[in-house]
Amino acid sequence: MGDIIHAIIIGIVEGLTEFLPVSSSGHMILTNKLLDISSDDQAIVTFEIVIQLGAILAMALVYWERILDLFGLSRKTKSLGPLSSGRQSGRKLNLIHVALGIVPAMLLAFLLKDIIKGEGFNQAPVLISLVIGGIYMIVAERLSKNRTIPVVSETMDDISYKQAFGIGLLQCLSLWPGFSRSGSTIAGGMLVGTSYKAAADFSFLMAIPIMMAATGYELLDNYKFIEGDNLMFFITGFVVSFVVAWLVIVLFLRYIQKVRLTHFAIYRFILAAAFWLFVMR
Asked: 51, 111, 163, 254: most buried, per Cβ within 10 A?
């Protein structure tokens, strides 16, 4: 299946890319190719699901106070880690916002699961998705920056139900492997009138339930691979993914104003070129 060094490398790649708008699935395909690991190996597929859980746990750790607040278990609302979400409008984000943001993509993913698994992870669709997703992100940022689309929600708590649903609809783009869930939602937020910070904040919070549901569903069919000689491989990848993802989330939220979507889009174009050179040729 692979050695511990492979587990560390793949765990690092997962942790670095899962919550950034650069496509973790695209990076996984390229990484497996460079390590000469078959992406069709069901044990490797299970491993990628497990290390994704590590990344989710890191996200939950950063946002634990706000998660409690959503369920009415916290007496006061604090900022989401390094990224402030203080209210300006008197509104407050609640579970309805989260549901509106995640239901469209979850429903469509369920309906199209066979198509996505059958064709979506082929190399050509991922390559095209990296490029188109990058263009989408640049356009969204330009429209917001030029005030063609005015920013009406500066913080996550200013987001309306209509905006949350709009972000949820645009998140459906991420079902195209290589497009990036965070890329589709952060850019989507800017397209419906949220600030870059508010969009990133909401995108990250939505990631927890939608990724938990997706990974939990996949593990029901693949848990049998997490045993025996594979166990240390899985544990290593999980721990590495958790630590790296936590660092990425904290640093990204801290320096969000300095790293724009256009920077990530340019990186995606470079990754697409790497795909062409190392995977498709």
From this structure: 51
